[in-house]
UniProtKB/TrEMBL annotation:
Its EC number is 1.1.1.37. GO terms for molecular function: L-malate dehydrogenase (NAD+) activity. Belongs to the LDH/MDH superfamily. MDH type 1 family. Residues 26-169 form the Lactate/malate dehydrogenase N-terminal domain. Signal peptide: none annotated. This is Malate dehydrogenase. The lineage of its organism: Eukaryota, Fungi, Dikarya, Ascomycota, Pezizomycotina. Keywords: NAD, Oxidoreductase, Tricarboxylic acid cycle.
Length: 341
């Protein structure tokens, strides 16, 4: 075994050992056999905070589970049949439900072009979750996130179990990209960059706040190019994959990071903060019901929603443009469930 492999497996085993003292945490992944689902399942299997991993997909859930279950960490892994009872069993007792189920973009498409297919998929999975595990934290990855999160809220409201503190649109990939892209401009270590990204998860609704990052020396065309790359980073991957889908590996890392933050918070760690798209009071007076900003996470989910803070003139303009689009995307999700309950 190489030095690197020894280090890695040793670390996994040590982390797995220390996990035995923690409270049990069941994590369910719906869409577990997909481009995101498989590496996300792998990363959650390596996470010592997870005690049970429940994998569901309309195809190959048990196969992916059998494969991952051989990894020598403490958690148990089970795959479920694509039936209503399989889905219900998968969800029952979950603390966290991650949903990356749905179709990805092809070149030339916007995330909104996925609405017609993914709205129904997410609605139906949310219905099952509202029934089987209404108290679980629900993490939505499926696009268009600006609309699929409101869809879930409406489904939970219809079921009489809506808790705004436990519903999250996963926008972590925007933060991950922002940190990486800033580090490329500045020649810094991306691990030390933590860029706040607010708004939503699509094009101009993605608003990176570079002015708050300590890099006010990035200005002019350099700043414009950086902001544009963060807003349209998803398109960069869609184009490079040339019809074979969108970001999967970086998204799996981002989803695993966000789930890990929620687990840390629920297992007692204080001061855990992530940017995420939640039911937010910040711009409700302008008709925008959901908004991504820095959110402090606690044992019950959302603990404190941070204000966006001081913005540059350019960021104020970006935020205004974001709010206009976001409002429409959110309304589209709400209207969908009203018309198709
Ligand atoms: P994929 O096609 O590779 O995988 C999707 C999986 O969902 C497939 O295995 C499919 O069988 C499964 N699925 C479909 N309908 C289902 C259902 N009703 N129940 C359970 N499983 C079902 O796609 P992908 O690349 O993994 O992307 C998934 C979604 O994530 C897309 O909508 C994509 O746009 C989105 N995405 C979001 C972000 C983000 O930042 N939030 C990033 C990347 C991708
Ligand atoms: C991303 O940001 O990579 C995802 O939302 C997938 C996409 O369609 O771009």
């Amino acid at each position: 075994m190489s030095f690197f492999a020894r280090q890695m497996f040793g670390q996994v085993q040590r982390r797995a050992f220390s996990a035995t003292a923690r409270q049990p945490s069941k994590v369910a992944i719906l869409g577990a056999a997909g481009g995101i689902g498989q590496p996300l399942s792998l990363l959650m299997k390596l996470n010592p905070r997870v005690s049970q991993l429940a994998l569901y997909d309309i195809k190959l859930g048990p196969g992916v589970a059998a494969d991952i279950s051989h990894i020598n960490t403490n958690s148990t892994v089970k795959g479920y049949d694509p039936t209503p009872s399989g889905l219900k069993e998968c969800l029952k007792g979950s603390e966290i439900i991650l949903i990356p189920a749905g179709v990805p973009r092809k070149p030339g498409m916007t995330r909104d072009d996925l609405f017609n297919t993914n709205a129904t998929i997410v609605r139906d999975l949310a219905k099952a979750a509202a029934q089987a595990a209404p108290e679980a934290k629900l993490l939505i990855i499926s696009n268009p996130v600006n609309s699929t999160v409101p869809i879930c809220a409406e489904v939970y409201k219809n079921a009489g179990v809506y808790n705004p503190k436990t519903l999250f649109g996963v926008t972590t990939l925007d933060v991950v990209r922002a940190s990486r892209f800033v580090s490329e401009v500045k020649g810094t270590d991306p691990a030390n960059e933590n860029i706040t990204v607010v708004g939503g998860h699509s094009g101009i609704t993605i608003v990176p706040l570079i002015s708050q990052s300590g890099h006010s020396d990035i200005t002019g065309e350099k700043l414009d190019a950086l902001v544009n790359r963060i807003q349209f980073g998803g398109d960069e991957v869609v184009k490079a994959k040339d019809g074979a889908g969108s970001a999967t590996l970086s998204m799996a890392m981002a989803g695993a990071r966000f789930a890990e933050s929620l687990l840390k918070a629920s297992q007692g760690e204080k001061g855990v903060v992530e940017c995420t798209f939640v039911d937010s009071p910040l711009y409700k007076d302008q008709g925008v019901e959901f908004f991504a900003s820095k959110v402090e996470l606690g044992p019950d989910g959302v603990q404190k929603i941070h204000e966006v803070g001081k913005l540059s003139k350019q960021e104020e303009q970006m935020l205004e443009a974001c709010l206009g689009d976001l409002k429409k995307n959110i309304q589209k999700g709400i209207d969908f469930v009203k018309a198709n309950p």
